[in-house]
Amino acid sequence: MIGLVSKYQALGLHIGIQDKEIRKGDEGMKILITLLLLLIIFPSSAGCAITHKYGPYYGKVVEAETKEPIEEAAVLVVFYTEEYGPAGAITRYADALETVTDKNGEFRIPAHRVTTFRPLQGWDLYGYFTIFKPGYGYYPIHKDVKPKFVPGGTLPTNQYVMIELPRLKTKEERLNMPSVNFDIPYEKQKRFIELINQELERLRATGKYSKESFGRR
């Protein structure tokens, strides 16, 4: 009887050892599967980073009637990605650059590469411009701005252009200013916003923009 009990105890000990070995094997297999998944996911994730090179853009901004240069006009260009779905392409802000015209009315935005992590998206191949100086109709919206490019609001790459802005004569005309895009960080369009605020102040209009107003949205 004692010998039978010993046999069962030995069998139980053997089964317990086997269970532990199986559990260790399962844990080892889980670790192996996790490592394999990481090796698959990381290269795939890197492939989801998309990049595109824009520009360069350069030219001159002048008054439409006199052809005199317009100094200190803000030149803002915004780049977008496109997300494709059943309803068509949806654009999403990717990056922006701004500069101002010099005393000769000239501006230059160097070639710029934008890289972002957006799976299943592509690039809108154009940069979209707003050119603004208080007291003038702004590019591209004002009807008397020349020239117009296709798609609307773009400028040709690596080609010198002359943009003509008409001088505005009435308060009503001057109040028709470009809108501020709150998807664009404040620091990316700081000079542009400063000029809008200057014009609002001159016209004694409400609704000035501040850096803090971006944080609240």
Describe this structure in words.
The protein has 217 residues and is of the alpha+beta class. The protein folds into two domains: 1-46; 50-215, Immunoglobulin-like (Sandwich), CATH 2.60.40. 31% of the residues lie in helices and 29% in strands. Strands 3, 4, 7 and 8 form a four-stranded antiparallel β-sheet that branches. Strand 3 (74-85) and strand 4 (88-100) form a beta hairpin. The radius of gyration is 31 Å and the shape is elongated. The termini are far apart. Mean pLDDT is 85; it is low at 1-15 and 38-46.
Average of pLDDT: 85
Binned, the helix content reads: 25-40%
CATH third-tier fold name of the largest domain: Immunoglobulin-like
Unreliably modeled segments: 1-15, 38-46
Strand content: 25-35%
Shape: elongated
Descriptive key words:
217 residues; alpha+beta; Immunoglobulin-like; 4-stranded antiparallel β-sheet; 3-stranded mixed β-sheet; 31% helix; elongated; disordered N terminus
What does the secondary structure layout of this molecule look like, with pairings?
Elements: H1 2-46, E1 49-54, E2 57-63, E3 74-85, E4 88-100, E5 106-109, E6 112-117, E7 121-123, E8 128-132, E9 160-165, H2 171-174, H3 190-202, H4 211-215
Parallel strand pairs: 2-9
Antiparallel strand pairs: 1-6, 2-5, 3-4, 3-7, 3-8
Compact overview of the structure:
With 217 residues, the protein is an alpha+beta fold. It is 31% helix and 29% strand.
